[in-house]
Write a structure and sequence with these properties.
By secondary structure, the protein is an alpha/beta fold. The chain has a single domain, classed as TIM Barrel (Alpha-Beta Barrel). It has an eight-stranded parallel beta sheet. Strands 6-7 form a two-stranded antiparallel ribbon. Strands 9-10 form a two-stranded antiparallel sheet. The longest helix has 20 residues. The protein is globular, with a radius of gyration of 21 Å. The two termini are about 30 Å apart.
Amino acid sequence: MNISQHTDEDLRRSLGIGRRRFLSTCTAVAAGAVAAPVLGAAPVQAAPRAAAGGNGRSLVPADKRGIILYTVRDAIARDPLSTSLPSGFRGVFEQLARFGYRQVEFAGYGQHPNAPGGASLESVEGAKLLRRWLDDTGLRAQGNHGFIPGSWPLTSSDLDTFKKHLEIANILGMAHMGTGADPTNSRYKADWDVAADKWNALGEIARRAGLKLYTHNHDAAYDFLLDGGPLDAEGRPTRGSGIRKLEYFLSVTDPKLVWLEMDVFWAHVAQYKFRTYTAHDGSTRTNVFDPAGLVTRHDKRYPLFHAKDGVVNTANGMGYDMVPFGTGVIDYTTFFSRVGHRNYHNPMVEQDNAPSAANPAQSLEHAAIGYRNLAALRR
């Protein structure tokens, strides 16, 4: 069944919070939207907040609006016997569906031991239970940040675990299975060649299981590859040709076997951080990263996005501080308009810092704000 969206008053009551605090929370996050300086290839500006029923075509169709459960991990881990707030997978699914979400991305299968199903649902039986709750609430599992073997070549134990996760993903009805880690942390071409071999092999196993294997990346993956120039004491290159690490990975992996999920926030952090490189001849050169441009060049290799927002902070080394989706300065109207394929891409709202010890309802409050602002995007 589909659970309809609630009004503000319904939301406040369902989260068990007072009217004054609910209004103050909404006001505070809305105040985070400020104009930004030019940090990248084009000015980064606060996106206008259009009403959900406004003019123009929705940039994110209703059936593509999702959230990664990492955003509300505190609610999933909450003891249902100690609170009236939504808790555990089942309760959180019900609440997210009320907000209007249609898709979820898992970040593991653990919850509080007192929640229905017990502490760990990382099993065939657990997956069947999760699938029933997803179906009951009208949600679809689109992916998971789960187990990708660290060893290469694969050990038999890692291969068995990987196949178990593929089976769980199929029971849950996922189209994709992935990880929240970069293929390698190295800056050296040889290590990315090894990572490509590994991911091509794992991607073939996933393809045979009917799934697309994807890697989710943070800012470091967009740093420049070291692929030439003088060698260091260990015989490694010290300079680059201007190719970014993930760009190289895309060029040496099979597009039929390896897919990607762009975290748009971290891609903009990379745009701020990694602007110059030392060329093979020792000169300093500028190359400003264009996140949407990378997606358009590689078209449908990006079935998933993390829709995460930020406000400018040039003092923290990243250029941005995270805020609820739609209350920051990252121009998602332009981003989604440029990448196109609105019926193919699956944006997942994410906010790493949504949980709050002082306000146990905060992560779900921010999930509701994120949904509304994702739905409001119009072209």
